[in-house]
Amino acid sequence: MTTTFLDAIKTRRSIYALDKNITRSENEIEEIIKEAVKHSPSSFNSQSSRAVILFGGEHDKLWNIVEDALRKVVPADSFSATEEKIASFRAGYGTVLFFEDENVIKGLQENFALYAENFPIWSEQATGIAQHSVWVALAEAGLGASLQHYNPLIDDAVRAEWDIPASWNLRAQLPFGNPTTEPGDKEFIADEDRFRVFK
């Protein structure tokens, strides 16, 4: 691994304070996201990951959907903190929705029955890799982001709003934009508690 690659990984942090004052064009961001997903590995080269990229009003619409869904389940007297959190995501420039195509997974289960029970696990690994790849690539491009998980609460509304295929299973949401603050220091557990090396 090169120092540049490790530096890029270190740059990726959860950034919640965002605004819309980005310096990259939408076309550039779209290409970054597409390339990051396209070149993320998946078991059996399944390429099961799917992404929907929302800019401008479409991005705002997503966070309105999230807010409306949460109003139905969060008590009104404690909703202000939730409302503030959603507003911070809406303040960003765009959102990437990550999906896994269940038809691909089912097809692999049928064609490789010996590994059938593993394909859903490997699908989760594939989406995790794709999410990380996009997040790192956006961070390297100077954009802040954070990974959110409002699925399955918003699944039906998202599917209806953007005509998402029924086989696409929503896994995560990545709001992004211009970072307006630096992330705080990150603490790490001791290496001896996390790694074992045998030589």
Structural summary, described in words:
The protein is α+β, with helices and mostly antiparallel strands and 199 residues long. The protein has 8 helices and 5 strands. Strands 1, 2, 3, 4 and 5 form a 5-stranded antiparallel β-sheet that branches. The radius of gyration is 18 Å and the shape is globular.
Keywords:
about 200 residues; 8 helices; alpha+beta; about 15% strand; single chain; 5 strands; 5-stranded antiparallel sheet
Brief digest:
This protein is α+β, with helices and mostly antiparallel strands and 199 residues long.
Largest sheet: 5 strands, antiparallel
**In terms of structural class, how would the helical and strand content be classed?**
alpha+beta
Distance between the termini: 20 Å
The H/E string reads HEHEHHEHHEHEH
Shape: globular
Total beta strands: 5
Unreliable parts: none
H/I helix tally: 8
Mean of all residue-level pLDDT scores: 96
How are the elements arranged and paired?
Layout: H1 3-11, E1 18-19, H2 26-38, E2 49-55, H3 56-71, H4 79-90, E3 94-101, H5 102-111, H6 119-140, E4 144-145, H7 155-161, E5 168-179, H8 191-194
Antiparallel strand pairs: 1-5, 2-3, 3-5, 4-5
